[in-house]
Amino acid sequence: MTQQYNALKCVLSLLIVFSIFLTASCSSIISSSLSGMMSNLSDTILNSNDLEMVEDGAPAYLLLIDSMVNEESDNEDMLITAANLFTAYADTFISDKKRARKMSDKAFNYAKRALCSRNQDICPLNKFDFAEFKFIISKMGKKDIDALYTLGSSWASWVRANSNDFNAIADIPRIEIIMKRVAELDETYKDGSAFFYLGISATLIPPALGGDPEKGRRYFEKAIELSNGKNFMINVVFAKQYARMLFDRDLHDRLLKEILEQDPNKPEYTLINTYAQKQAEKLLASADEYF
To answer: Which of 13, 227, 240, 281 could form a disulfide with 231 if both were Cys (CB 3.0 to 4.6 A apart)?
Structure first.
């Protein structure tokens, strides 16, 4: 009876104060289930097709996640989930540059902490020069792939949020090293998402400044192949960063119309696919003016 009463108090506390200030007695009871709760929250958000509801409601979930991570500061799984959700929310909903930088900073820090929880010797990552960094990443194995990919994706989001900073742009080769290692370890990981990020990196800047759009095209096509077309955002970025850069109207329109004709409700991709379709409509609407 005492155990049930204490558990009930914990649930009520979560509902009333939104879990921001967990008490020591409550945290001792629910600590073992925090990772599961975060995973369920993540699944709920990523599998929703209601962008407005997620945009309005997700900040409350993100505060909850912050409180959970504070309770389990060295829990790698929780740090990875937190980094992925903050990255997804920032990339999808935040247009204000200042807010985007704050949110991407948080996601990037969570990702670094997740990787460092595995091996303290590699932290902080910025203490290594490029050659040392490349060597360290090359030694990481399949057991590191979740943390490694999360670091790369959150780092890419951070670079986009700080794209006016030359020092941030200079980090792109390090992101490429990470994603190439993920692809070497398992090219099918997260349906080939490493190739998606490699495509973004190769087409982020024009050829005159060191970009390689044709390599980017190959990466995007590989990502579409490995995802079996489930991730609509690949088509959107492929069209926006490659087809528009090279003024390829036929490819641009084909990529976008292809995803508008499909059902966006796909496990783990519903939210991003719904968003991608909205972006595809905007790009097509502006195509005559652009091309």
So the answer is: 227
DSSP class of 192: G
Cα(161)–Cα(2) distance, integer angstroms: 50
pLDDT truncated to tens, each residue of the chain (291 aa)? 444 434 433 333 333 333 333 333 344 434 445 556 666 666 777 777 778 888 887 788 788 778 777 766 678 888 998 898 899 888 888 888 899 999 999 999 999 999 888 777 778 877 889 999 999 999 999 999 999 999 999 999 999 899 888 888 889 999 999 999 999 999 999 999 999 999 998 998 778 877 889 999 999 999 999 999 999 999 999 999 999 999 999 999 999 999 999 999 998 899 899 999 999 999 999 999 999
Ordered structural domains, the chain, with CATH: 38-290 (1.25.40.920)
